[in-house]
Write a structure and sequence with these properties.
Blueprint (H helix, E strand, L loop, with lengths): L6 H52 L20 H5 L7 E5 L7 E6 L9 H11 L9 E5 L2 E7 L1
Antiparallel strand pairs: 1-2, 2-4, 3-4
Length: 152
């Protein structure tokens, strides 16, 4: 009667586990990217709603080009959520104005930030807007900046 596994049996089990892992792990990566994208959109929607309430109270939209929490904006959001990086990397920014847009809130990536992924930003635009980063509510502004437009 045998009391242990042979080396061949152990190798077969290891190979089977390796094959299963190679099938399952890529699916988890996709789920993780999708969850980060959804968390970014959810957080942005909260900040956009807060910025609109801020504008009703102060008559102007919050503005902090350097990524700091805009003055008085902490009364409308949890400041810890603003101070940490966005779920997709980069830092939160509120701009008033930015280019031809009167006010916007979004993400800015510094320099060669490894989290900056234009394809991800395109996927976010397709999820929440018109699929064109040059038009609509979610836009690219160059220099690694992607914003939800609050006012034209």
């Amino acid at each position: 009667m045998r009391s242990a596994f042979t080396l061949i049996e152990i190798l077969i089990v290891v190979v089977i586990l390796g094959l299963l892992a190679s099938i399952v792990l890529p699916q988890f990566r996709g789920v993780t990217a999708e969850a980060r994208r959804a968390a970014f959109v959810y957080s942005a929607q909260i900040f956009v709603a807060a910025a609109k309430r801020y504008e009703l109270d102060y008559g102007e939209y919050p503005d902090a080009a350097n990524g700091d929490l805009p003055d008085g904006f902490g009364d409308y959001i949890q400041s810890a959520n603003w101070d940490r990086d966005t779920p997709i990397g980069g830092e939160w920014q509120a701009r008033s104005p930015i280019g031809s847009v009167a006010a916007a809130i979004g993400v800015r990536y510094q320099g060669n930030d490894p989290d900056h992924d234009p394809a991800l930003m395109q996927a976010i635009d397709e999820l929440v807007d018109d699929g064109d980063l040059n038009t609509g509510v979610f836009r690219a502004f160059g220099g690694g900046r992607y914003f939800f437009v609050l006012a034209e």
